[in-house]
Amino acid sequence: MAFRFPEGFLWGTATSAHQVEGNNTQSDFWFLEHFPGTAFAEPSGDACDHYHLYPDDIRLLARLGFNSYRFSLEWARIEPEPGRFSLAALDHYRRMLAACWENRLLPCLTFHHFTAPLWFTADGGWEDERAPDRFAKFCERAARHLGDLIGLACTINEANLNGSLAVRGTFPREGLKYRLKFMAEAARRCGTTLERFSPYLFGDPNRINEIMLKAHLKSREAVKSGPGRFPVGLTLSMDDYQALPGGEETRDRALAEDYGPFLEAARSDDFIGVQTYSRTRFGPQGPVGPEEGVEVLVMGYEFWPEALEATIRWAWQKAGVPIYVTENGIGTDDDRQRIAYVRRALKGLIRCLQDGVDVRGYYYWSFLDNFEWLFGYKPRFGLVAVDRQTQRRTVKPSGLWLGRIARLNAFDEEQ
Ligand code: BGC
User: Which of 117, 169, 225, 226 could make an S-S bridge to 147, C-beta 3.0–4.6 Å?
Assistant: First the structure.
């Protein structure tokens, strides 16, 4: 028996500007990617040249059967110098939003997805008290230009991620920048100190978490101050935190520390964006590695699609607002494994719906094989492959498979 999703359920794919657009030269990450001794596996370069190819890309998404597209603004293009806004860049994003509507895709717009203008990062970045105001000013200006075309808005992508990576033991507690040699030199070349040089993902997680929360609240108002009426929320990076025998307390502490304040803040939002890829297991001393016998993916975490059900339920219990799965996916070269992953993740999502959880959409990460941050182009998350020499797109079987589910708004276990 096929399961029918609620009327109006959003089926989409997600991208972020820096990962697909190409040549984001005013941004902090571009600067770091090119720095001698960089920790990035390779520079983002032309990426998928989505900056120019978006009209065809958006048409392709619609043809595949999706009814929504989540993408992000690039702050560094819009405000390349403090207080100087580029109308040309804003108009570019207006055209992208319009292209979505023309193709009957509801545009879900993210205002911050990891990257920032280099001037911002070099002047305190996300560890500076002025960050919430600076970011809100950008959001206000962008929303004024774009608001009437926005369908759904995310203020900050994975506002908790700096903290999460520390809680999960992936990054050091004091901040990754203090462990990477090239960062001190990068800071120096920007005329600042390592303490004041704070790109997202690399800074001091404790400090950033606090500022992110403030930035979300301020930017939420800024985004709503423009034309258009649309739901606004933030998105969180959510692993399923599991306890091994004796690890219950440590796990509960991790849940409270990582998700607690953000889910609390989300109670007054229009929705919460849940973004899930895997699980983390906790023993009495803290996070423990992958379980023997469970496959470890190229990103270093386990193949664990059931994590999505657990995180949706946790977000629902704590925030109590509508949920969009704003990211879920797998980086793999084996497209059959991708289908197996999403099939199991969707089954979990359906169980949530059957229990009355208000889930309103599912965005697969990602539309295209794209720039996976420190890992470069090796992990392939896309439903669509990209030949980066010719920029030719090739739809993978998973793209056709998920597009069909989207078009039917129904899921059959046998599918
Ligand atoms: C981020 C994406 C990233 C994806 C896969 C999420 O944490 O929002 O930018 O590419 O995970 O690693």
Answer: 226
Give nearest CA residue, ligand 1 atom 5: 372
Query: Which residue among 21, 74, 158, 302 is the active-site one?
Result: 158
Within the chain, what is the greatest distance between any pair of CA atoms? 63
* Residue 191, helix vs strand vs coil: coil
Residue 53 DSSP one-character state? H
Asked: is 2-412 a CATH 3.20.20.80 domain? The reply is yes
Burial tier of 286 (Cβ tally within 10 Å: 0-12, 13-18, 19+)? middle
**Closest C-alpha among 96, 57, 107, 108 to residue 399:** 57
Q: What is the DSSP letter of 356?
A: T
- 17: helix, strand or coil: helix
Report pLDDT digits (tens) over 73-124. 999 999 999 999 999 999 999 999 999 999 999 999 999 999 999 999 999 9
Cα gap 399→380, rounded to integer Å: 13
Known catalytic residue at 102:
no
CA distances from 327 to 15, 177, 209, 312, 373 (A): 9, 26, 20, 12, 16
Model pLDDT for residues 209-220, shown as the tens digit of each residue:
999 999 999 999
Which regions of 130-231 does DSSP assign to beta strands (E)? Answer: 152-156
Q: Which two tokens stand for residue 105?
A: 């895709």
Distance CA 299, CA 288 (A): 16
Contacts of residue 407, Cβ cutoff 8 Å, sequence gap at least 6: 65
Q: Are 219 and 234 in contact (CB under 8 A)?
A: no
